[in-house]
Here is the input.
Amino acid sequence: MAGGRRARGAIVRQATASIYEAAQRRAHEIAREIVREIAESPFTPVDTGRLKHGYYVDTDSNGDALIKSRTYYWKYVEFGTRKRKHRDEQPHLRPAIEIVRARHQ
Here is the structure.
């Protein structure tokens, strides 16, 4: 009987690992789709193009998808500055996320 429990436990662990890996792959696909949406979106402001083409998908130590930017100023464009928050704000990341979210609902 103990051997049967161990076998079932191994099957459950293997299934859980497979589901987790599939979820990570799907998260990476969606993150890449968000990055493409930012690059193609009319919401992304363009001066030199560094912001628009500076986003990329990276992986953390757990294998999870992260959207990163090669520019330091993306957050000032997205959220505005402390002194001129609503006047300088030009959201581009949030609209891209919402567009991709709507596609997958």
Q: What stands out?
A: The helical segments are 2-40, 74-79, 85-88, 93-103. The mean pLDDT is 88. The longest strand covers residues 55-59.
